[in-house]
From TrEMBL, chain A:
<keyword id="KW-0472">Membrane</keyword>
<keyword id="KW-0406">Ion transport</keyword>
<keyword id="KW-1133">Transmembrane helix</keyword>
<protein>
    <submittedName>
        <fullName>K+/H+ antiporter subunit F</fullName>
    </submittedName>
</protein>
<keyword id="KW-0050">Antiport</keyword>
<keyword id="KW-1003">Cell membrane</keyword>
<dbReference type="GO" id="GO:0015385">
    <property type="term" value="F:sodium:proton antiporter activity"/>
</dbReference>
<feature type="transmembrane region" description="Helical">
    <location>
        <begin position="6"/>
        <end position="22"/>
    </location>
</feature>
<keyword id="KW-0813">Transport</keyword>
From TrEMBL, chain B:
<dbReference type="Pfam" id="PF13244">
    <property type="entry name" value="MbhD"/>
</dbReference>
<dbReference type="InterPro" id="IPR001516">
    <property type="entry name" value="Proton_antipo_N"/>
</dbReference>
<dbReference type="GO" id="GO:0005886">
    <property type="term" value="C:plasma membrane"/>
</dbReference>
<keyword id="KW-0812">Transmembrane</keyword>
<dbReference type="InterPro" id="IPR007182">
    <property type="entry name" value="MnhB"/>
</dbReference>
<feature type="transmembrane region" description="Helical">
    <location>
        <begin position="498"/>
        <end position="520"/>
    </location>
</feature>
<feature type="domain" description="Na+/H+ antiporter MnhB subunit-related protein">
    <location>
        <begin position="794"/>
        <end position="915"/>
    </location>
</feature>
<dbReference type="InterPro" id="IPR046806">
    <property type="entry name" value="MrpA_C/MbhE"/>
</dbReference>
<dbReference type="GO" id="GO:0015297">
    <property type="term" value="F:antiporter activity"/>
</dbReference>
């Protein structure tokens, strides 16, 4: 049963990634693209976790933790750049 | 004392004068003298053995697989030279103590002198030609320091550069020659090479080796046409000249020819190259010396001439010639050092060395005049002085030497040279010390204190003693050294004054009489000399150096024109062409692997990768957009790594992506936000073609590779099998990094640190240099919004900080057995700190950062290095790790590996480098923001001690805090009038006295 749930969830997140991709490539402004990139990272983290369950290994979780912890820094940097230009003031 | 220790003593002792100079010049001189004296004593203890023909050796394996062994030996020749170097060194140390003035950095002088002395002793005691080459180069370098000692004199600097260029180039040539020689002989040990005479002389490579080695010897010993550097080196202080040009530096070339004499000499090539060069040098330099007015210049050219004489004698290839050469080396060292020191005394006392302004000094400084006269008469070859004996031997040999079948060429040229030599010697005495006392000396001369004339007086005594009783005072020494030169079995005729009326005696008589006649007719001769044009060596040298510089500039400017597009084009085309060439030459095996099934998720990843890459191409004019799109590529690549079972790579890639984004954004702040379309349509098509071909080629190559097994077995298997047993870790990637390929990692950490320091230095130059004006005038090209330090971000990152650090520690600790390690941990911690910089600002964070990033980098390299060295104490090679298991009460059994120390070094190096580089770059923007005001210096200061003296509050001063919260904690508003409506600036004020009451 968990297999079907996993397949369904992975399918959803993969689809979400494609939608994110569309938003990055075609968007009204840079802000939308940065947001889409951030969402993409979130979806990727989810995908990693699901893969970890599928494969039964903990390594995937660690990668996703690291991603969660550091991935947002890039988003913050983009945001600060868009707002202020200078990211370390 | 071991020969190795004798050579090492001066190097070890070189630090003493530099330290002791703080307690006075005499102490520095005393320390230098003690070191030289100790080395000399150690050497002389071996004298009885050396006189008995024994060879004392000390052998250490250094790099045996290269043939480079630290083998030292003391044989007769080495004994003679080492005694000269150390003995005259002692005299020079004494002399220099009185010669150098209070303004001269005397400590430096003695340090350089000892370094030079050590290098020279190393040359003469080496029993390995590669070791000898190392010492040879060290003499070039240390003599550069000595010649350029008076840094304020342009002549000194130019002379030092010229000496270094000429002798350095000669050294290069010699390296090649020595390698050939060692290759022919099958060993680089001199004692082995000396046994291989037949093999060397019958080899086809004999002539190239000979020419290359002589290139080194001739440049060092200032033989024609390389003689020009020596007179220019006279800009050095006189003690240096006396030391370098009487007993040491220039004798190194002669030493080398004498050392290799048994295997190189005796062939027609040797005779015609060496003897002819020596004869020409002797003649030309003697002629120039006559007309030099500067005492030291005269002595310099006479030195060149005498070096030519010894070279000529060695070039003859006869045993008697070798004996005469050795004897003349001793004699020349004694009288020339005395002459140089006398010239120095004259310069020191009369404040001029110009012969035209001197004369009559015999009455004013009788002691100096006596010493100088004795030494100069010896140089002229007058009987009862030692120079006579060896010159006589030279003339005797010359009289029997035929050159290209003619029996007259050599004797006649030697006679003329002897005549010139007598002339300049007489001129040195007559124009310097004789004649009437003048009243227009720049300074009234008188004899110097005893300490200054003691050294030359000692040498002058030797000149006389050897001259009168050669058998007693020089006989055994000459016998010992000459025996070593010719390779044993030498039956030396006793040195005698009277051989009957021989050709040599007749030539000597002619030379002395002719010398007096020439001196008498000096004025018209000088006028004629002045009138004849002659090539100026310095001008030619400068022209050649200038031309080389211009050519190098031209080549650099042509190849390296600053266009990134051009470099990339050339590089890409080159790589593709090389790949194509390699591919077309080899065969391709059948495909041995199956395609993996394409899962839908993999397909999604592929679609994303392709779309993102294509979009980068399409949108690359918008730089920020390109950056975002590259972020997608990074994301997919990281996931790919995990998906394809490379978690270490994935963790690294994830962290690197973040750091890269921060770095690019820092740079993008100053860059145009859009790329201009640069190239024309034709060039555009060309670039597209290159890109497509390269991309397809690379893709095709990777596909081809991945569909096949490797033709040869890969290293991976070895690593996988031995990771646990040898490296003590289960994470093979980490064990490879810290153990199997630890040396590479060590180099990489060092390079990373250097790169960060270079970035720091470059930004430092931008901040404070001329270009800082441009930076101060720079204004943001996009509008600014919001506040600098949003409080949500601030609080969020501070909460994150300990968690992030803990994750870093965790990843570091378990790295040896599971994915992780110092590199990834370093990146994670760097990101955690970068978060603080972004959220709370540079100044605020930097004020709380107690360790200087430079120090972190240094500590990292040190930690890695010390761990590596620790392996030596375990009796295993550098960087071999060890591990063991430890059981502490209350904890599970755990592993301790020395590799953790190395990994710690990597960790510190990465943290320091990343933050130093990012912090350095971020300072540019702050420089632009604060402008030129020095008050804000702390905002851009990197060093802890330059930071703001005021203790900043818990929040950066610009943070907008909620008003009620701020009031409760003593933060006041910058603007009082709207304090109750607007959020306040977070500037904490000290409660004043009035408020307290």
């Amino acid at each position: 049963m968990i297999t079907y749930a996993l397949i369904f969830a992975i399918g959803c997140y993969a689809l979400a990634l494609l939608f994110n991709l569309y938003r990055v490539v075609k968007a009204p402004g840079v802000t939308d693209r940065v947001l889409a990139l951030d969402t993409m990272a979130v979806n990727a983290i989810a995908l990693l976790v699901l893969f970890g369950i599928w494969e039964g290994t903990a390594i995937f979780f660690e990668a996703s933790i690291l991603y969660a912890m550091t991935g947002f820094v890039a988003t913050v940097a983009y945001a600060k750049f868009l707002l202020r230009g200078d990211i370390i003031e | 004392m071991s020969p190795a220790l004798i050579a090492a003593l001066p190097f070890l002792g070189a630090v003493l004068p530099a330290l002791l100079i703080r307690t006075g010049r005499s102490h520095a001189a005393l320390a230098a003298g003690a070191v030289s004296g100790l080395a000399l004593l150690g050497l002389l203890l071996h004298l009885p053995a050396a006189l008995a023909g024994q060879v004392i050796t000390a052998k250490f394996d250094w790099l045996p697989w290269l043939g480079l062994n630290a083998n030292f030996m003391i044989d007769g020749l080495g004994m003679l030279f080492a005694t000269l170097i150390l003995g005259i060194g002692l005299l020079i140390i004494l002399y220099a103590r009185f010669y150098l003035s209070n303004q001269d950095p005397v400590g430096q002088f003695y340090t350089y002198l000892l370094l030079f002395q050590g290098a020279m002793v190393g040359i003469v005691l080496s029993d390995n030609i590669l070791l000898l080459l190392i010492f040879w180069e060290l003499t070039s370098l240390s003599s550069f320091l000595l010649i350029g000692y008076w840094k304020h004199l342009p002549e000194g600097r130019q002379g030092a550069r010229m000496a270094l260029t000429v002798t350095g180039l000669g050294g290069l040539s010699m390296i090649a020659g020595m390698l050939i020689l060692g290759n022919i002989a099958g060993s680089y040990d001199i004692s082995q090479i000396l046994l291989a005479k037949e093999a060397i002389q019958s080899s086809d490579l004999y002539l190239p080796a000979l020419i290359l080695i002589l290139g080194g010897a001739f440049t060092k010993s200032a033989q024609f046409p390389f003689h020009f550097w020596l007179p220019h080196a006279m800009a050095a202080p006189t003690p240096v000249s006396a030391y370098l040009h009487s007993a040491t530096m220039v004798k190194a070339g002669l030493f080398l020819m004498a050392r290799l004499w048994p295997v190189l000499a005796g062939t027609p090539e040797w005779f015609y190259i060496v003897a002819t060069t020596g004869l020409i040098t002797m003649l030309i330099a003697a002629k120039i010396a006559i007309f030099k007015d500067d005492l030291k210049a005269l002595l310099a050219f006479s030195t060149v001439s005498h070096l030519g004489l010894v070279t000529f004698l060695l070039g003859l290839g006869t045993k008697v010639g070798a004996v005469a050469a050795v004897f003349h080396i001793i004699n020349h060292a004694s009288f020339k050092a005395a002459l140089f020191m006398s010239a120095g005394i004259v310069d020191h006392e009369a404040h001029t060395r110009d012969l035209k302004r001197l004369g009559g000094l015999r009455h004013l400084m009788p002691i100096t005049a006596t010493i100088a006269t004795i030494a100069a008469l010896s140089m002229a070859g007058i009987p009862l002085f030692n120079g006579f004996l060896s010159k006589e031997m030279m003339l005797e040999e010359a009289a029997h030497t035929a050159w290209l079948g003619s029996p007259y060429v050599v004797p006649v040229l030697a006679a003329i040279a002897a005549l010139f030599s007598a002339t300049y010697s007489f001129r040195f005495i007559a124009h310097g010390f004789f004649g009437p006392v003048r009243d227009d000396y720049p300074h009234k001369p008188h004899d110097p204190p005893f300490g200054m004339w003691a050294s030359p007086a000692f040498l002058a005594t030797l000149v006389v003693l050897i001259g009168v009783m050669p058998i007693t005072f020089a006989g055994p020494f000459v016998q010992m050294a000459a025996n070593a030169v010719v390779g044993g079995d030498l039956h030396m005729h006793p040195i005698k004054h009277w051989h009957g009326v021989t050709p040599a005696l007749i030539i000597s008589g002619i030379a002395v009489v002719g010398g007096l006649i020439l001196l008498a007719s000096f004025k018209p001769l000088k006028a004629a000399w002045e009138a004849t044009p002659r090539p100026e060596a310095k001008a030619i040298f400068d022209w050649i150096v200038g031309a080389c510089g211009a050519a190098a500039d031209w080549i650099t400017a042509t190849l390296h024109n600053g266009s990134m597009a051009r470099y990339l084009t050339l590089f890409t085309i080159g790589s593709v062409a090389a790949g194509f060439w390699a591919f077309s030459g080899g065969g391709l095996g059948p495909e041995t692997r199956e395609m993996l099934p394409i899962t839908p998720v993999a397909l999604v990843g592929w679609v994303m990768l392709v779309t993102a890459s294509a979009s980068v191409v399409a949108f690359h004019h918008n730089r920020i957009l390109a950056l975002v799109l590259i972020g997608i590529v990074g994301l997919i690549v990281s996931i790919c790594f995990i998906y394809l079972s490379a978690p270490d790579l994935a963790l690294t890639q994830i962290s690197v992506e973040v750091v890269t984004a921060v770095l690019m954004l820092l740079a993008l702040n100053f860059l145009p936000k859009r790329t201009k379309r640069g190239a024309g349509p034709l060039k555009h098509v060309w670039h597209i073609a290159i890109a497509v071909v390269t991309g397809l080629g690379t893709g095709g190559l990777i596909y081809t590779l991945m569909m096949r097994d490797f033709a040869f077995e890969t290293m991976s298997k070895y690593h996988l099998v031995n990771s646990h047993t040898l490296g003590g870790g289960d994470n093979v990637v980490n064990v490879i990094l810290v153990d199997f390929r630890g040396y590479d990692t060590y180099g990489e950490v060092t390079v990373l640190g250097i790169a960060a320091l270079v970035i720091f230095a470059l930004t430092e130059a931008l901040l404070n240099g001329a270009s800082s004006k441009k930076l101060i005038a720079w204004r943001p090209d996009v509008p600014r919004a919001g506040d600098k330090h949003p409080i949500m971000l601030l609080v969020g990152t501070r909460v994150m900080m300990p968690i992030a650090l803990l994750v870093g520690v965790f990843i570091f600790l378990r790295g040896h057995n599971l994915p992780g390690g110092g590199f990834i941990a370093g990146l994670v911690v760097s990101i955690a700190l970068v978060m603080q910089y972004m959220a709370s600002g540079f100044a605020w964070t930097q004020a709380r950062q107690k360790v200087y990033y430079h120090v972190l980098i240094g500590l990292g390299v040190l930690a890695a290095g010390i761990t590596g060295i620790g392996a030596w104490f375990n009796g295993v090679p550098f960087l071999t790790s060890d591990y063991g298991y430890v059981k502490l009460p209350g904890l599970e059994k755990f592993e301790l590996a020395t590799a953790a120390g190395f990994d710690l070094g990597v960790f510190l190096g990465v943290v320091g480098s990343v933050l130093l580089a990012l912090g350095g770059l971020s300072r540019l923007a702050r420089r632009a923001a604060v402008g030129a005001e020095p008050v804000h210096a702390h905002i851009i200061a990197e060093k802890p001690e330059a930071r703001s003296p005021e203790q900043p509050g818990a929040f950066p001063p610009e943070t907008l805090l909620p008003q009620r919260w701020a009031q409760a904690r003593g933060y006041t508003s910058a603007r009082q009038d709207d304090a109750d409506t607007k959020p306040v600036k977070a500037k904490k004020t000290k409660p004043t006295e009035a408020e307290e009451q």
